[in-house]
């Protein structure tokens, strides 16, 4: 059976809907690709590390944290500089800056081995790649998913609120 990937961001979801859509998608493995596993704002407390892991456990979904697949603080700061220059709030960003895409590709994806990653997932059938941005095009998770699709032929679906 071929592994399938979904991506999901935290912004825009209410807690119950976030977890329900993971179940409907058949997610059995949740891969957190955030550098910091916290989200500001009480409406997103469900996505803070401990609460998130506890809820996933009750749903029978395995949790993995892959910080090595997250952009570094310096790279995120460079994207925030572009956001400020374009007067776009992080939560309203719809696309990544070209410089971010180039640097993420050079710093993270150049070292990324999709086959080894898939092997580490073991018997996983549906894997969710999670970060915070609502729009996949505004988040590195879409770059990671595109690499997995291109190299492994994996199906990818983006879950949106």
Structure in a nutshell:
The protein has six helices and five strands. The mean pLDDT is about 95. Helices cover about 40% and strands about 15% of the residues.
Word description of this protein:
The protein is an alpha/beta fold and 161 residues long. It has a single domain, classed as Protein-Tyrosine Phosphatase, Chain A. Helix content is 40%, strand content 16%. It contains six helices and five strands; from the N terminus they run βαβαβαααβαβ. A five-stranded parallel β-sheet has the order 3-2-4-1-5, sandwiched between helices. α2 links the parallel β2 (29-32) and β3 (62-65).
Name the shape in a single word. globular
CATH architecture call: Alpha-Beta Complex
CATH topology: Protein-Tyrosine Phosphatase, Chain A
Element-by-element helix/strand order? EHEHEHHHEHE
Radius of gyration, whole Å: 15 Å
List the uncertain runs.
Answer: none
Q: Count the helices. How many?
A: 6
Task: Record the strand order, biggest sheet.
Answer: 3-2-4-1-5
> What count of structural domains?
1
Provide the β-strand percentage band.
15-25%
Tally of DSSP β-strands: 5
Instruction: Give the C-level CATH assignment.
Output: Alpha Beta
User: What percentage of residues falls in helices of 4 or more residues?
Assistant: 40-55%
Main sheet specs: 5 strands, parallel
Distance between the termini: 28 Å
Q: Kindly state the mean pLDDT as a whole number?
A: 94
Structural class: alpha/beta
